[in-house]
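Work Package 3 (structural annotation) set out to generate three-dimensional models for the target panel prioritized at the project kickoff. During this period the team completed the workflow that converts sequence records into discrete structure tokens, so that structures can be stored uniformly alongside our sequence database. As a representative example, we reproduce one entry of 220 residues exactly as it appears in the project archive.
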Amino acid sequence: MRLPLVLSLVYALSTLPALAGAWLEAEGRGFTSSALRTRGSGQEVSGYIAYGVSQRLTFGLDLNQSTDAQNQSAHALVFARLPLRQSETGWQLAFEMAAGFGRVETQWSGMKRLGLSAGRGLSWPTRGAWVNFDLIREWREEGLAKAWKLDGAFGFERKSGPAVIFRGEVFQPDAGARIWKVLPGLRWRLSPKRELLTGLEWRSFGQERLGLTLELWQRF
């Protein structure tokens, strides 16, 4: 698989917020994320919204546009998230289906995605924490673009001051080399329902391997 296509595919799968996968939104409540990743070779912007239609169904929209070293990609997906296990304790499990359109350079085509997520809260001696994993299968109607992706996130909770968050992404196309990203950062609580994330991006590919990340999380 050509490198520009690999880069475009990994950008299209890199926008889910850390708490998106395993937890459904409460009925009548929602979550939004606006994100910017910037590097010396380009930038990536994304928008995400999830809304709890009922206790057992979350609908949402996932938007992304990326330009990096003259390689452009974008996608617009509508998704539905269904519970496999939702409990006050232990592991939370959910299944997600998404469909829409994606663009590689100037070529638009149909795009589909299936995901299985697992997450849980953790109890530490001095503070709370959580962990989340998303296993994703994606494909496009135009031929070669099929891939697996595994996202992982680990974060601490704090009532005041910044909280540490670690995220990692591994991307494996069906015909191509495996690539990865590591994203350490800090979560700043601006209000009870709003958080700002700042951090770094370190990746295994591209002209620029290091970048900066900025995200705004909002619950409503």
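The CA atoms of residues 174 and 213 lie 28 Å apart.
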